[in-house]
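Saturday, quiet lab. Running sequence design on the structure tokens for the scaffold JK sent over.
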């Protein structure tokens, strides 16, 4: 038992009354499990609480209402005696009090009464509203106040503030009817023959009420006059029609009133509300009628005793005891409900025992079965009231004025003809309506703001990992003493008794092997349709029992302590000597060994517990099993078997390189890669080779996306999608898919696409025809409505330069390829597309371009048309196009190629590509300087990431430009024949398979077609659309891969070679390609390092890791202090991981491997806000929030995409096992290219039993390596030096070593 005193007087801010104190406690259990509990404590001035219940909730003066006071203590118990209620006028004194003491005087609860004039005081002794009657005498601020002292003499004053002063009514006029309540005099369940009393505060004259009540069995009604301006009573008799539930409806009819009767003090009202106007009010209430459906159930353990100091019976595992169940009285039931069995009534019991731990993990409350069998025949009334058609005269006048004003402003506008009803509040903006609180003057007020949204966490909970297969027990231990953790019986009892007469039965319960608390539930049902349930608990406990206290995982090289907690129960549990033995199971000695004593003596403490730990050492990978037995004498024994997984110090890593080889005839092209086999765990290393030709799979993927986007080509038709459909066959023909060589068979997937493309092409042409997506004046449109609405849609105001420019360029770029298909559909379609280009799309583009340029020059602020628009238009019109004669010379200059040349550097990436492609399509060499400048700009912004490379969005940017820009740049460089070294092949790889973008929700079909065109032309330039090459990869005399590529459909060639197949000092990899075409090769070394590096490893991602103590004042989710090398046993720590990516990348995984002494806490199971998402959403977009999977060995975070910059992840853990542990490196890697990765520094970490936390030495900043080690070595970021792979030398590993 531990106690902590909380001194509220030390708070910086005194809490307001009433308020609550939230107490959150975390502690470490006996086996170092993290336990968290919270509780709420009410903060009050006294042990009393009062609630004012009013018959009307209104601030309108001159309206009478009743008030009752319900007084209880803070535990909910009633307070005897009447409570006084005072109506206090605070109009004169409240402003001075606020100025003197602040707004705290307006608190709903205080210790001292208000300093105001008491207008009336009344004693309330019940919840009826007719005892204390009040009304506000005029406009102003008032308060209902009740002051009560508790038994200790502490006083508390409870207040309800009423009324508004004239300033407040002026700022917020009276705008709606006063709500009338239907008040039940006495709540609860009634029986047939009773009368239910209701009260209604009637504030009108000459009002009457239609009262209806009943059920599906019948309906009664009556009409009664309501007494003028009084609390009216209405009685409803409960007859047989209400036996299965009843509903009451009161429909009040109010005729037009006199203004002086309803608004005697002249409170201002809105134009939409007239206080004197007639109204109807409908009120409904359900009446619960008791039904004889409940029987009381008792459950007893007659043969079990409750030991002193306990409140629950206890039994030992495998002991048997009877459980008696019976139908007895119904304690707590209300009087109308009978709980006794009738003569001849049979009862059947169902008895279930469930492990309480299961119910805590998956809560399932005891079910009241009677509620499911109670009939609910109460009616639900649908009311249509005439009030819906009654409007204040001001509302109609406002409509007429609004109509006239809108007609004057815009005769063609759609008029708002809504007549606003009472309750409507005009809003002048889109924000919340702020109502100031005035305290007596026209210029005083306060505003308030609402709470902010709380971030949410995402995480995945790992499945249990403790299930073990059946294992034979060693002969050294008695078989009956062993308890297997896997032998977990969650429901040891599920049986039925009966039907029996007399309402009594018994069942035998045999306790299972697993110890703990079990909840026994009994459900009863009779043949008369009555039901009941109850529950009780029983503890299954051994006289001596063992609870495992061991790590859930360890790693090779760890030296740690593991054992058991011995618990002795009974009257003499303390000072019991116990002998504990540990044995390693046969076959586990290779994985785990005892590094100290294997037998220990211990004595239990005053609570009957003692922890016994043995020193163990992890030797090798595997799963070790240990047996621990304990003997306390007097025949008290127990034993258990534990499994301890022994893992490696880190996961497998991948080191890779990739490049392209252009095959040549004759001797063939060769490439050599040096090869060094790192020091890896035995059997953990392999070389994986991947080789492929061309990018046809990516082209087919885009084609499939286009054809599956809208299979039926349904309307409204999408212009960009239909344009893409018309271009797909041309790109597929680049790979000769329509005219394959004799004997060459298409891949089934490619054959399916080829067959579907022809039908889609025909439909696309029909949809692109004039009158559909092509407008006779405005050319190609973005979309067109369905035929019934097409003629009704608003006429186009302008042509789309974007659609017409890309339509012209793509049709002309791809049209010639259709001729090569030798299919009539495509031949005719080619002519149709050219007709649309010549007669509609190009003329529309020219006309709109000239119109926009002229409009820009003739506006209030004359300027040139946007440069990127000119570049896009020129892509379609060509460099030789000139404006018609008579065009304004300034407009001609704005649209000229000379302007594009002079302002070329102001263009973005896509604009430069448009200009470069325009110049490359023109005759002659004019403008090639601009093309070279564009290629130079793109090449300088290329950022390489292993097998891919992209062009950045700007100089120094760490994010790629758009996919369209990268694709057009690749196309321009291909057509220019630019020498880009390895970048061209890597750029093509990126265009073929870019990472998924954060906001890539809407398909861009023109972009997809442009990507297909760029990939097709690049492959054609490298001979990969019609390859014929052989690839041979060797390491000395060892052949690693032989592959032949004779078609763009040739599949990837993959081979995996274990290191054991190579020589001890392997020779470099030699790649030989002979024939025609370009082959792309990727070589990966996959291995688990034998000795993790003690410095961070950077191969595209920088990873850092620190372990710190948790800051208990931060909701236990923030670290504090320096990074630590050792922590005390039982500490709560935060493992902070910081990853830095220089570029925006795609799907990324971060694996935080846990050292053996730390157990991670799942943020969901812990019931805490600690989760990576709750931390990240406070700093950045939710898109940066990864999924989290928590396992004992590792916490894995998975990003859909990772933006450039630094990201912080946090894992809370408990120092659960003492010992010295290897600190494994945290790894971060790209899912698609695992060789783009980073590792934090490895090391060691200690959890000590009796010590203080020890800080780790300060880490220096990362140092850059020369040329990033040229991709041929590892960078030591601590020293800034390269560790070159075998076969490479030099400071930057760029030179080949001498043979």
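Result came back. Writing it out in full:
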């Amino acid at each position: 038992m531990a106690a902590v005193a909380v001194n509220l007087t030390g708070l910086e801010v005194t809490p307001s009354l009433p308020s609550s104190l939230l107490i959150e406690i975390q502690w470490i259990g006996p086996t170092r499990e993290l336990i968290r509990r919270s509780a709420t404590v009410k903060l009050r001035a006294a042990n009393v609480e009062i609630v004012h219940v009013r018959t009307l909730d209104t601030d309108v003066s001159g309206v009478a209402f009743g008030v009752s006071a319900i007084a209880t203590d803070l535990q909910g118990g009633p307070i005897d005696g009447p409570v006084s209620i005072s109506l206090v006028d605070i109009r004169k004194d409240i402003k001075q009090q606020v100025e003197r003491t602040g707004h705290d005087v307006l608190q709903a609860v205080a210790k001292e009464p208000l300093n105001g004039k008491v207008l009336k005081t009344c004693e309330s002794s019940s919840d009826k509203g007719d005892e204390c009657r009040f009304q506000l005498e005029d406009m102003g601020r008032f308060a209902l106040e009740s002051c009560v002292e508790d038994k200790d003499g502490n006083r508390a004053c409870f207040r309800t503030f009423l009324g508004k002063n004239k300033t407040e009514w002026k700022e917020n006029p009276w705008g709606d009817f006063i709500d009338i309540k239907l008040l039940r005099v006495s709540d609860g369940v009634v029986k047939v023959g009773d009368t239910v009393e209701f009260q209604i505060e009637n504030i009108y004259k000459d009002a009457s009420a239609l009262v209806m009540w009943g059920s599906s069995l019948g309906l009664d009604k009556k009409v009664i006059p309501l007494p003028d301006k009084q609390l009216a009573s209405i009685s409803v008799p409960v007859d047989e029609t209400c036996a299965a539930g009843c509903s009451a409806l009161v429909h009040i009819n109010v005729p037009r009133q006199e203004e002086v009767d309803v608004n005697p003090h002249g409170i201002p009202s809105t134009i939409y509300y007239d206080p004197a106007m007639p109204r109807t009010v409908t009120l409904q209430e359900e009446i619960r009628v008791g039904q004889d459906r409940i029987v009381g159930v008792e459950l007893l353990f007659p043969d079990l005793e409750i030991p002193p100091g306990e409140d629950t019976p206890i039994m030992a595992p495998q002991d048997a005891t009877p459980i008696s169940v019976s139908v007895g009285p119904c304690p707590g039931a209300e009087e109308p409900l009978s709980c006794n069995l009738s003569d001849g009534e049979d009862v059947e019991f169902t008895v279930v025992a469930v492990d309480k731990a299961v119910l805590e993990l998956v809560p399932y409350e005891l079910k009241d079965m009677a509620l499911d069998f109670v009939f609910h025949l109460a009616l639900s009334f649908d009311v249509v009231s005439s009030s819906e058609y009654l409007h204040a005269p001001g509302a109609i006048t406002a409509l007429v004025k609004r109509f006239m004003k809108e007609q004057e402003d815009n005769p063609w506008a759609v008029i708002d003809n809504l007549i606003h009803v009472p309750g409507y509040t005009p809003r002048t903006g889109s924000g919340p309506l702020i109502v100031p609180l005035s305290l007596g003057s026209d210029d005083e007020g306060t505003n308030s703001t609402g709470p902010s949204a709380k971030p949410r966490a995402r995480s995945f909970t790992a499945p249990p990992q403790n299930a073990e297969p059946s294992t034979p027990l060693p002969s050294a231990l008695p078989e009956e003493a062993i308890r297997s953790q896997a032998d977990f019986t969650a429901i040891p009892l599920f049986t039925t008794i009966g039907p029996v007469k007399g309402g009594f039965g018994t069942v035998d319960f045999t306790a299972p092997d697993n110890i703990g608390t079990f909840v026994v539930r009994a459900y009863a049902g009779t043949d008369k349709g009555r039901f009941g349930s109850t529950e009780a608990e029983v503890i299954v406990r051994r006289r001596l029992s063992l609870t495992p206290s061991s790590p859930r995982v360890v790693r090779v090289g760890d030296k740690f302590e593991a054992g058991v907690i011995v618990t002795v129960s009974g009257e003499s549990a303390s000072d019991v000597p116990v002998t504990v033995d540990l044995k390693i199971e046969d076959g586990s000695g290779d994985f785990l060994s005892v590094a100290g004593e294997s037998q220990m003596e211990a004595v239990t403490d005053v609570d009957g517990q003692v922890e016994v730990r043995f020193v163990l050492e992890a030797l090798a990978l595997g799963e070790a099993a240990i047996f621990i037995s304990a003997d306390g004498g007097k025949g008290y024994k127990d034993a258990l078997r534990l499994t301890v997984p022994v893992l490696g110090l880190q996961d497998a890593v991948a080191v890779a390189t990739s490049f392209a080889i252009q095959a040549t005839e004759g001797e063939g092209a060769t490439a050599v890669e040096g090869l060094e086999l790192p020091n890896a765990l035995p059997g953990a290393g392999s070389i994986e080779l991947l080789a492929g030709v061309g990018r046809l799979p990516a082209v087919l993927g885009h084609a499939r996306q286009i054809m599956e986007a809208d299979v039926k080509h349904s309307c409204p038709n999408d212009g960009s999608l239909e344009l893409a459909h018309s271009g797909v066959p041309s790109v597929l023909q680049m790979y000769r898919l329509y005219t394959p060589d004799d004997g060459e068979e298409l891949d089934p997937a490619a054959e399916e696409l080829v067959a579907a493309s022809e039908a889609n092409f025909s439909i696309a042409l029909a949809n692109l025809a004039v009158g559909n997506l092509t407008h006779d004046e405005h050319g190609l449109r973005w979309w067109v409505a369905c035929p019934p609405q097409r003629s009704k849609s608003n006429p186009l105001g302008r042509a789309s330069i974007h659609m017409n420019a890309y339509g012209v360029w793509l049709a002309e770029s791809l049209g010639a390829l259709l001729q090569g298909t030798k299919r009539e559909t495509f031949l005719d379609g080619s002519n149709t597309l050219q007709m649309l280009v010549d007669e509609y799309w190009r003329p529309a583009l020219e006309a709109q371009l000239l119109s926009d340029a002229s409009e820009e020059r003739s506006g209030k602020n004359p300027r040139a048309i946007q440069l990127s628009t000119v570049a896009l238009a020129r892509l379609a019109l060509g460099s030789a196009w000139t404006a018609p004669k008579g065009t304004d010379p300034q407009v001609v200059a704005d649209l000229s190629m000379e302007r594009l040349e002079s302002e070329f550097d102001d263009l973005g990436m896509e604009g430069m590509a448009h200009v470069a492609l325009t110049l490359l399509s023109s005759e002659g060499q004019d403008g090639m300087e601009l093309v070279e400048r564009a290629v130079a700009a793109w090449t300088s912004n290329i950022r390489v990431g292993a097998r891919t490379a992209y062009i950045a969005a700007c100089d120094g940017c760490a994010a790629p430009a758009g996919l369209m820009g990268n694709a057009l740049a690749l196309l321009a460089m291909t057509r220019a024949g630019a020498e880009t070294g390895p970048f061209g092949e890597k750029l093509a790889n990126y265009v073929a398979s870019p990472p998924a973008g954060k906001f890539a929700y809407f398909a861009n079909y023109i972009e997809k077609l442009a990507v297909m065109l760029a990939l097709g032309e690049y492959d054609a330039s490298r001979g990969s659309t019609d390859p014929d090459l052989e690839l041979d990869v060797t390491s000395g005399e060892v052949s690693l891969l032989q592959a032949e590529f004779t078609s763009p459909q040739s599949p990837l060639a993959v081979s995996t070679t274990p290191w054991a197949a190579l020589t001890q000092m392997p020779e470099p990899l030699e790649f030989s390609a002979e024939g025609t075409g370009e082959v792309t090769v990727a070589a990966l070394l996959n291995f688990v390092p034998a000795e993790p590096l003690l410095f961070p490893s950077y191969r595209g991602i920088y990873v850092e890791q620190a372990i710190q103590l948790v800051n208990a004042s931060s909701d236990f989710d923030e670290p504090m202090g320096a990074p630590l090398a050792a922590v005390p046993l039982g500490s709560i720590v935060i493992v902070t991981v910081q990853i830095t990516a220089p570029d925006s990348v795609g799907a990324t995984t971060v694996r935080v491997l846990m050292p053996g002494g730390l157990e991670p806490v799942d943020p969901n199971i812990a019931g805490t806000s600690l989760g990576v998402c709750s931390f990240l959403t406070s700093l950045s977009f939710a898109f940066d929030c990864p999924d989290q999977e928590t396992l004992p060995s590792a916490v894995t975070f998975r990003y859909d995409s990772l933006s450039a910059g630094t990201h912080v992840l946090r894992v809370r853990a408990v120092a659960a096992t003492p010992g010295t542990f290897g600190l494994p490196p945290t790894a971060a890697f790209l899912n698609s290219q695992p060789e783009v990765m980073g590792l934090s520094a490895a090391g060691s970490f200690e959890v000590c039993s009796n010590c203080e936390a020890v800080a780790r030495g300060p880490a220096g900043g990362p140092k850059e390596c020369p040329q990033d080690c040229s991709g041929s070595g590892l960078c030591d970021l601590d020293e800034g030096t390269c560790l070159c792979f075998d076969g490479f030398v030099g400071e930057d590993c760029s030179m080949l070593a001498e043979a």
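Notes for JK: The longest helix spans residues 824-858. The two ends are 74 Å apart (CA to CA). Ask whether to fix the surface positions before the next round.
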